[in-house]
Amino acid sequence: MNTIAQQTANRFREVILNGTWIANTNFKDQLNGLEYQIATTQMGTFNTIAVLAQHIHYYINGINNVFKGGNLDIRDQFSFDFAPITSQNQWETFLAQFWNDAEAFTSFVEKMTDEQLNQAFVDEKYGTYLRNIDGMIEHSYYHLGQIVLLKKMIQK
Average pLDDT over the chain, rounded to whole? Predict the structure, then answer.
C-alpha cells in the first residue's frame, strides 16, 4: 500500500524526473541533451527555457532547505534572478544539480508521515506541507508546458 507521502513523492518525481502520465513528458526528458544555446534563446519577452528551469530549481532548493530543518529563505521577487548560462558545461552542471536536488526533494517527501504532511509549513499562513508540495507539483507542470512550447518555437 502506498502512503499519501509516497503517492505525492511519485507525482513530484513524474513531473521532474521520469513521468509521462499527465503531460506525456517531464523536465528531465525535455532538458537532458538540450544545447545551451537553445535553452538560453530569448523569444520576445518570454523567459528562456534555462531561466524557467532555474526558477523551478530555486523553489525545490528552498523547500529542501526547510525539509533539512532550515529556514524558508526563498522569495518570489528573486525567483527569476540568475546569472546567465554561457556554456554547455555550465548548463549540464546546472541540470545535474537540478536532478540531484529533485531526487532529494522526493526522498524527503516519501519519508513523511501523514501527521507531518498535515503540519503547518513554516508558518500557518503558508498552509500545510502537503499543500506546498502539491503546489510545487502544479507549479512545475505550469512551467513544463511553457518549456515544451518554447522548444517547439525555437526549433521550428
Answer: 97
